[in-house]
Fold this protein.
Amino acid sequence: PPQPPPVHVPSTIRPPPPATGPPPPAAPPATEPPDLPDDDAGARDVREAAALRELLAETRAEVDTARSELYAARRIAAEAKAARERAEAERDEGASRTARAETIAAEAVAERDAAVTAAAEAVASAAAMRAERDAAAIDARERAAARARAEEIAARERSAREDAEALVDGAAASTERAGGERDEAVRAKDEAVARARLAERKMQDALDEQIRAEEEAAELRAELENARAELAEVCAAARSTPGISSASSPAGDGYGAGYSRSVRYSRSDEAAAMEVERYQLVAEVQAKSRKLEEAKAEADVLRGVGDEAAARANKAERERDLAVAKIESLASELESTRESTRRAAADAGDVAERLAGERERLAAAETRAAEAERELASALAALANAASSVGKHRSDAGDAGSDRPSTVHEAVAAVRRDADARIAAAEEAASTAAAALEAERLERGGAEDALRSKIRTMDAAQDRLLAEIDAATGELERLDAELDATEERARAAEEREREALEGVAAAATKTDRLMEMLTEQEEW
């Protein structure tokens, strides 16, 4: 605000101390001198001097008054200056508070921006971690599916081997069981069809009974309507007959009166009989209605039984379909089992044929060897007999005999060697087949070991992926916690910013109020 102009104090007037009491009284007016007749000019001078003294006294009084007012104005100006200095100090303090509040608000805004940036980074990191976790989960699922497929393949191989080993012995039992189940399904179907037909017959009987009951009820209603019509005609005739008889017979005729009374009695009896018949008809109609209701109830019951039988028939049909499907699956399984059995039997038959051929050849060789040994034994016996009968003096015959047994022994040895060679060849073929079977068994065992090792590797990889997923989940939880903390700090910063803005607004309001007060004081 503009500064007030300083008060100019003349240097010739020495300022007195500030007045604490009322201003001093004015000097008394000078007494007018007496008129001097001798000298008019002197008297006039005296009067002028007295007037001047009076004017001087008034001027002094006015000067004292002006001086006291000046002192009061100076005191007011000093107070205004002090108030202005205080207002300026308060304004400066408010400005400094405003600057501090703005600084705090700027810091809060910076903290909020940093918190928002950190939250965005945390959200981005969390999204990246979630994407990595999803990718790891997808990879884990794929590996789990691959492991499941490998386990399924291994299980199929094991089951195929076990089936190939077990279904050969259980083919006949499966066939018998399938036949028994098929027979049971056929019997269940026949029973269900019979129950359904029985329920249909019962339902048809109930419907026929209901139709008959409705027809009887219709006939009874028609009879009741006819009876009511006849009763109405009789009542109308009874009401019209007395007037006619009285008009046709003369007054005082006793015969006419008796005739009219007899007619009335007969008609009243007929009306009573008709009423009784009507009651009987009503009772019969009610009985027929009750019978109809009972028939309807029985028909409803039979319909419910029929529905239940139809439901059971449908259930039996579904069970039959399931049994047929099961039989078909069992038949296909049996066919596949038979096929595998046939293949296994063919392989076993080939092996058995080869072994049988080798056994037959071996048996033939053994037979030939036995026959050769028997022939050799008989020849040796014959030679021994011949040698004993000829004697020792026939050395040439003995030498020839000794040469012949050696030839026979050589033939027997050759036959034995041939048989041994064939037996060795058969044993070698059997050992080769056993070695091939053992090699195939070892190869299958190696494949199973490789599959198990692959499964173990996939299990380890899955465990590693699960550990990575757990770590990623922990990291995501940590990031979520940091995000929550960042959001809490952001909320705290926003709260501090709001408080700072409220303080700034309060300081601005106070400053504006002080400036308004100062302006009002200066205007005053």
About this structure: The chain is about 90% helix and 0% strand. The two ends are 14 Å apart (CA to CA).
